[in-house]
From TrEMBL:
Subcellular location(s) of the protein: Endomembrane system
Gene, per the UniProt record: DRAM2
Cited InterPro entries: CWH43_N, DRAM/TMEM150_Autophagy_Mod
Gene Ontology CC: one annotated term: Golgi apparatus
Record organism: Rhinolophus ferrumequinum
Transmembrane intervals: 82-107, 127-145, 166-184, 190-216, 228-254, 274-299
Assigned protein family: Belongs to the DRAM/TMEM150 family.
Biological processes, Gene Ontology terms: cell population proliferation; photoreceptor cell maintenance; regulation of autophagy; retina development in camera-type eye; visual perception
Matches recorded under PANTHER family: DNA DAMAGE-REGULATED AUTOPHAGY MODULATOR PROTEIN 2, FASTING-INDUCIBLE INTEGRAL MEMBRANE PROTEIN TM6P1-RELATED
Source taxon at top rank: Eukaryota
Signal peptide: none
Major place of residence: membrane
Protein name according to UniProt: DNA damage regulated autophagy modulator 2
A Pfam family hit: Frag1
Keyword Oxidoreductase tagged: no
């Protein structure tokens, strides 16, 4: 997979007559990566590889039309900005749909149940598991694209490269935890479910922290300070929620409120540990929203990057023959029309 420059970057402009070479920066166009030569005597531009020739006026119009077309694109059509958007929308939909189903069937109480409690009993657990598994795939794709983007923007920064690799590992572990939470309910496999939750929230929080450090080191050269402050706010929000959830859940499951608390799905105000339960669930939902807010900050960054796939053929047939040079295919992974 190759990462190319985004088609909505600054449109190239024709230079003064003294400049002899012009290379378009519009990714995905038929002119990408080709050098146009300028003929000063005829005041025209031509592409030697295909014998194409345009006047300077035609060339200016061509670039202007392409730039206008790009500005007419919807925000989610620009680059890979749909990826973090889809991640947040899909994950939120998984929570909402399973919550509505569990409430309708009276499997949990309407007042702030655990997120995983809404996916404990059938049929909502089937919906919860399937949607969160797909959310984990979207999360892997988002984290990988972010990793490649930071690496491309900082190819020589040793500190940034190490932090970027650490962020990739932490993010992938968080995705693994999300899949474990989706497939192992706490009433059936409590230990596995807790391990998944620790990976999801713990490694996810560290991932957010690492990315915030990267944002600090990349500003103001790569992006503005505003992005860093927004991500820092999301990290603080996540940290406060995590501390509240960890403290109250430790007290709640210490054994002082009965052995069957793990299996308990319905809570009443007069039950022991009700206050701790409500604080824990509120902190869990709050922490999830901080994750949503953090990934939404990727939308603007992902508008500046595109993803490609390249097929390298070793022969013209699939028989066991000697390798021969062939023309390789290089196309977009997803159509721009989508």
């Amino acid at each position: 997979m190759l990462l190319g420059s985004a088609p909505w970057g600054p449109a190239p402009s024709l230079s003064i007559p003294g400049l002899r070479t012009w290379r378009p920066a519009l990714a995905g166009s038929s002119e990408e990566g080709r050098s146009w030569k300028y003929n000063g005597e005829q005041n025209s531009w031509f592409l030697p590889s295909q014998n194409l020739k345009f006047s300077a006026e035609d060339k200016t119009k061509q670039v202007t039309v392409k730039s206008e077309d790009l500005f007419e694109m919807w925000w989610f059509q620009q680059g890979l900005s749909f990826l973090p958007s889809a991640l947040v929308i899909w994950t939120a939909a998984a929570f909402i749909f399973s919550y509505i189903t569990a409430i309708t069937l009276h499997h949990v109480d309407p007042a702030l149940p655990y997120i995983s409690d809404t996916g404990t009993v059938a049929p909502e657990k089937c919906l919860f598991g399937a949607m969160l598994n797909f959310a984990a795939v979207l999360c892997v794709a988002t984290i990988y694209v972010r990793y490649k983007q930071v690496h491309a923007l900082n190819p020589e920064g040793n500190c940034i490269i190490r932090l970027n690799k650490a962020g990739l590992v932490l993010g992938l572990l968080s995705c693994l935890g999300l899949s474990l939470v989706a497939n192992f309910q706490k009433t059936t496999f409590f230990i596995v479910h807790v391990c998944g939750a620790v990976l999801t929230f713990g490694m996810g929080s560290l991932y957010m922290f690492v990315q915030t450090i990267l944002s600090y080191q990349m500003q103001p050269k790569i992006h503005g300070k505003q992005v860093f402050w927004i991500r820092l706010l999301a990290v603080v929000w996540c940290g406060v929620s995590a501390f509240s959830m960890l403290t109250c859940s430790s007290l709640l499951y210490s054994g002082s409120f009965g052995p069957d608390i793990v299996q308990k799905l319905h809570w009443k105000p007069e039950d022991k540990g009700y206050v701790l339960h409500m604080i824990t669930t509120a902190a869990e939902w709050s922490m999830s929203f901080s994750f949503f807010g953090f990934f939404l900050t990727y939308i603007r960054d992902f508008q500046k990057i595109s993803l490609r796939v390249e097929a390298n053929l070793h022969g013209l047939t699939l028989y066991d023959t000697a390798p021969c040079p062939v023309n390789n295919e290089r196309t977009r992974l997803l159509s721009r029309d989508l």
